[in-house]
Amino acid sequence: MAAQFRSYVWDPALIVSQMVLLQAGYYSSLGLWLALLGTLGSTGPSLQQVFSDEILGFSTPPGRLSMMAFILNALTCALGLLYFIRRGKQCLDFTITVHFFHLLGCWIYNSRFPSTLTWWLVHIVCTALMAAIGEYLCMRIELREIPLNSAPKSNV
């Protein structure tokens, strides 16, 4: 068998560990952004800001700060895709998985399916941002030139 460039081996343990790492990074960075932005609005981070669909909105300052935190979190998680996934083809898959598990978490926390339009719009925009920027960053790494002159020259 000939060796293939960038061959992919099916490794379920690696995939599950990457999903857990990204999910933990998602909630950690979201909590950090909510805490940092909460100092602007003099509110502390809470589970309501993370999981409630009713808090997101343009009409209240906590709603606007939460929306800003979700958007900044999408940018931060795009960097997580770059450092932990490193494959442009898999960025959309992992992004959808992270947001799907967040949807399930919101559904369980609120005991009902999220129904507000702003919640859906914010999360669709965040999913698109995270996937597009993560894929762009990963593709930049994948498309770098492969150095062919890495062997030392011999003086013959």
Automatic annotation (TrEMBL):
InterPro entries: Integral_membrane_SYS1 (IPR016973), Integral_membrane_SYS1-rel (IPR019185). GO terms for biological process: Golgi to endosome transport; Golgi to plasma membrane protein transport; protein localization to Golgi apparatus. One of its GO terms (cellular component) is Golgi membrane. The gene is SYS1. It is found in: Golgi apparatus membrane. Interacts with ARFRP1. Belongs to the SYS1 family. The chain crosses the membrane at residues 12-36, 65-85, 92-111, 117-138. Pfam families: SYS1. It is a multi-pass membrane protein. Keywords: Golgi apparatus, Membrane, Protein transport, Transmembrane, Transmembrane helix, Transport. Involved in protein trafficking. May serve as a receptor for ARFRP1. This is Protein SYS1 homolog. It comes from the Eukaryota.
